[in-house]
Amino acid sequence: MGKNVVALMLQEYENFTKSERKIVDYVLEHQNETQYISITDLSAVCEVAVSTISVFCRKLKLAGFNDFKLELARAALLAGPALQKPADGGEILPEDSLHTLMSKVLHAAQDTLGNAFHMLSQSAVDHAMDLLVAARQVVCLGQGNHSAVALAAWAQFSTTSPKFKTIQDSHLQTVILSTLSEEDVVLYFSYSGATHEVLEAAELIRGRGARLILITRFLNSPASAYADAVLLCGPNEQPLQFGSSAALMAQLYVVEVLLQEFVRREREGAERCRQAVGKALTQKVL
Which pTM was predicted? Predict the structure, then answer.
């Protein structure tokens, strides 16, 4: 677009409907916060329908709400120095030394783990663990960067029980989801909980009567409505980050919590499985 999105909203303000002006008023007052908010949360704070926000974005000649947040981020970059801010570790400045940069990243990582601990609900973890222990099989899934977390989760859990599985190919994910039973559980990693992939997966899971444990940043995300348990974690991610290491770190923290609690509940079976795996792996060490 020619003008930045903030200038365009101000220019077209009088042409917007009453509901659309509510969106503009909120965005102008909370421009930084809006870069991190989900469409359902924005709908709630502005007291407008989600569809109204979608129409509003199209009036600005944008593809959708995520495109709108990208344009907000670009407008913020044009308005000031293009600085990256990793969580609460402090801004990384162009003049920083390598040592200072390393220190700021360290503090950001520590803040990420601390925030993940405070966001994670004990009751939600307890319910998720009941589902994992009772499951016939558990499928670990994710898309994009979060497919790496799903793979890491499977790699950890597979040493404790053969019922944990994963699949990376999106078409084969559809195959395995379409053959689930009511005794199966899907452990799905999605920062936004609002992608086409996670919603398609959630609908397949519900259709098969299986259970969904969703690890996400937003409690009111569209996919959360399908989930049997929602585990919240993750930092506020800037739109231009496209998947931050902090978000992955927070999800890996949740994986470790689930893993340790699973081993504690299934100690005998996990120990037998780990002994068998350990014995086999020793043959691979020189």
Answer: 0.73
